[in-house]
Write a structure and sequence with these properties.
The protein is of the alpha/beta class. It is built from six helices and eight strands; from the N terminus they run βαβααβαβαββββα. The longest helix is centred in the N-terminal third of the chain and has 16 residues.
Length: 197
């Protein structure tokens, strides 16, 4: 199974990129998977050389192919003007509209206040609904105070990551270890947290 983390931030260092990496790592602790990371701080200039998919050069085509070939996507963006970044939108403008049908997606975002977390439901989830992808119910949202420098340190957000990963495997029959397998802590269902979505 191929897991691709996508950070929609165009800045480095990036709290969003770190959050995406944390979620991908939690999946990798749970099952035998291949992981990859797509950082738009690096990839966006390549993608913006093309305005349409048929204009992609080899480097751009390879980036889009990696998205289309992934079994699971972990997609994160900073909240920018009430939505995800334009660089991330451009990437998905170049993805074939049929390519993500039935694929599983974990959604994540970072923002300035808890209220910005609404972007995940009102902007992000509908994007993947258009593609026919299946987004896990729990999203992961973090604000600046949840980080020390650029490292996630809020245990409530970490618990949401674990819950999202658990839900991911609920949506992937046969991919998860047997229920109650304590050697796979990523499958623990964390209930009743009070984190803002």
């Amino acid at each position: 199974m191929k897991i691709l983390g996508i950070s929609g931030s165009v800045k480095r260092p990036s709290r969003t990129a770190h959050l995406v990496e944390q979620i991908v790592a939690a999946i990798a602790r749970t099952a035998d998977v291949k992981t990859g990371h797509l950082d738009l701080a690096e990839s966006a200039p390549v993608l913006f050389r093309a305005l349409r998919a048929d204009q992609l050069d080899d480097a751009g085509r390879a980036i889009v192919d990696s998205v289309e070939a992934a079994d699971v996507l972990v997609v994160g963006s900073p909240v920018y003007r009430a939505s995800y970044t334009g660089a991330l939108k451009h990437l998905f403008d170049l993805v074939d509209f049929r390519a993500l049908q039935g694929r599983r997606v974990i959604l994540a975002a970072t923002g300035g206040t808890p209220l910005h977390g609404l972007m995940l439901e009102h902007q992000f989830r509908p994007l993947f609904g258009f593609f026919g992808a299946v987004t896990v119910p729990t999203t992961v949202y973090a604000v600046e105070a949840d980080f020390t420098e650029y490292t996630l340190t809020n245990t409530i957000v970490e618990a949401r990551i674990e819950r999202a990963v658990s839900e991911l495997f609920d949506l992937l029959p046969g991919a998860a270890p047997a229920a109650g397998d304590l050697t796979n802590p990523g499958l623990r269902l964390v209930a009743g947290d009070a984190a803002t979505n």
